[in-house]
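Deviations from the work plan: none for this task. Representative record:
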Amino acid sequence: MHRHHRAATLAAVVLSGALLATGCSSSSGGKKSEEGGAAASAGKATTPRMTVAMVTHASPGDTFWDLIRKGAEAAAAKDNIKLVYSSDPSAGNQANLVQNAIDQKVDGIALTAAKPDAMKDVIAKAKAAGIPVVGFNSGVDDWKELGMLEYFGQDENIAGQAFGERLNQLGAKHALCVIQEQGQVALEARCAGLKKGFSGKTDILYVNGTDMPSVKSTITAKLKQDSSIDQVVTLGAPIALTAVQSLSDAGAKAKIATFDLNKELVKAVQDGTIQFAVDQQPYLQGYLAVDSLWLYKNNGNFSGGGTAPVLTGPAFITKDNADTVAEFAAKGTR
Amino acid sequence: MSMTQHAEPAVTTPPASGPKATDGRTAQRPLALRLLARPEVGVLLGAAAVYVFFLVAAPPVRDGSSMANVLYQSSTIGIMALPVALLMIGGEFDLSAGVAVVGSALTASMLTYQLTLNVWAGVFVALLVSLGVGFFNGWMLVRTGLPSFLVTLGTFLILQGVNLAVTKLVTGNVATDDISDMDGFDQAKKIFASTFQVGGVNVKITVVWWLVFAALATWVLLRTKYGNWIFAVGGNKESARAVGVPVTFTKISLFMLVGFGAWFVGMHQLFSFNTVQSGEGVGQELIYIAAAVIGGCLLTGGYGSAIGPVFGAFMFGMVQQGIVYAGWNPDWFKAFLGVMLLGATLINLWVSRAATRR
C-alpha cells in the first residue's frame, strides 16, 4: 500500500498548491493589466470557398514565423479560404509537404524556398497539376527560375546593406554580426549584406539560438575578447534582448541594433536600450502570399509581372516611430 | 556491469612490510593506481588540460570576469548534468531533459501571467509539473519494462509539441509574456538568477547552486543508502532486487530528480530573460548526457560519480567559450567541440584501463 499512500500525499500537495495559488494574486502586471484590443478583422468575401496550402521551412515555436502564420490566417479568413499550414526545417521534408498539398488538389500553394534546389521538382509538379505557386520570405534570387507566379519578401542582402549604411550614419566603427543558426542562408545573407554596406569592420559570431544562457555568455565572451567592438547586430528579437544583458555582463559600451521585431523589442527601442530594428514585416508576407492566390483565382491578377519581387522590407523602427508600431506589436501582429 | 563502489577512505597507506609474499588477492593496490581508477580522474585531467590550453591560447581567459562567464555557462549545463548523471549511474537515460527545462519555465510564466498570480505560485506549480513529468517517465519505464530511450523519446516529442501548442493556445503567441513587473519576481530572481561580487568579479548565483548540488549529490552517492541503491539498480537490476533494493522507487525517484533539475534551470531561464520562447531547449538533452559521459559515467550504468559531470560540464563550457575568447574562425566551432569531446572520452578510457590493469 506504499504507493497509494504516496499518491495520496501527492494529491494533497497539488490541492494545497491550487489553494495557495488562488490566494495570492499579483498586484501588478499580468493578464489583468492588459488592455483589450481586437485583432484586425474585416468582412468576409462571398467568392466560392477555396483551399490554399502554405508550406514553410519554419522551425516550430519561433515568434517570427508565428507572425507570418497570423497574417496568412487573417487573409484566409477575409477571402473565404481554407488555409492548410505546414512546416518543416529540413528541405526534403518540406518538399514532401508540398507534394502532400498537390495530392490534396489544393487551389494554390504559398511556399518559402530557403533551399531552392530541393523545391524545383515539386514546384514543376504543382504547375503540371495546374496549381499556382507563389513564393514568400525566402528565395528572392530563385523564384523566377523555379517558375513561381510572384514573390513577397525582403531581399536579405539589400536589407543587410541598408542596415550597414544606417550604421555608417550613426558612426559605428566595428560591428559584430550574431548568427543564431549556423549555415542558414537568409541569416548569412544578412551579415554578408551588412559587410557590404558597412564601411567599418564586421565580425561574425555563431551562437546556439535554442539555448539562451549560452547565447548570453557567448556574446559576453566575444565582447571581452575584442573590446574594439562598438556595435552588436543581432538577427532576431530574442537574441537582441539577450545581448543587452551580455553587454552589461561584459561591461562593454557597444550599442545594439537588430533585424526583426517582437513586442518586448519594440519596448526596448522605445526606451532606448536598443537603437533600431529592421522589420521585414512577416505578417505582411503571409497576408500577401495568401491574398495574392485569391486575386489570381478570382481576377487573374499577379504582382511584379513575373519579373520583379514585391518587397515587404526593410522597414526601420526607431525611437521616433516605435510608438505607432508598439500598439500592433502588443497585439502580437507586428 | 558489476557493482563498482569507491567509498573506501583514500588515506590508508599501503602495507609497509617490504616484499613479503602475498597471494595478490588481499594486497592493497598502490594509492596512485587506486586514485586513477576513480571515475572522475580522467575528466579532471582533461578539464585541466583544456583550461591550461586556453589560458595560453586566449589571453582574455586570464581575466577573472571571463572565468566567471565560463563558469556561468558551465553551471547552466552542469546543474542538469548532475541528476542526468545520477540517472545514468542508475542505468537509465532521459531524452526529455532539454525540453523539460523549457516546459517548466513556460508553465510558471504562463500560469503567473494569465491568472495574474504572485510569481511564487507559478514557480511552485511548475515544480509540481516537472516532478510529475519525471514521475511519468519513471512510472512508464517500470510499468512497461521498455528501454528508457524509447519512453523518454516519447515524452521528449510529447513535451515539444505540448510546449508549443499550449503556449499558442494560452497566449496566442509562441513566446510567453513579460512577467518582470509582477509581485514576487524580484524575490525569485534573487534566488534563481542574481549576481554577486567576489573580489570585483560578478559571479552568477547558478555557479553557487551548481557546486552546492554537486556536493549534495556526492554525499548522497557515497555516504547514503540511497546512493548504494543507485549503483545497485544500475549495475544489475535483478540482483539488486534480490538483495532487497527497492528498484521501482529508486528508478522513479531518479527521474523525478531530473525533473527537479529541469525545474531549477527552467526557473533560472525565466527569471533571467523574463520571457520564454516555446521552441527552445531541443538538443540540450544531448549536451547534458555528454557532460555526464565525459564526466566518467558509463552509458551502461552502474559506474560514475557526481564530481565527474561537474568537470564534464566545465570542460564543455570552457571549450564553448574558449574558442570565442581565442577569436578563432567560428565556422569550425562545432568540429572543434566534437574533437575535444572525443579526446576527453579517449583520455577517460585510457586512464581507467591503465588503472585497472594489474
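Chain A touches chain B through 50 residues (CB under 8 Å).
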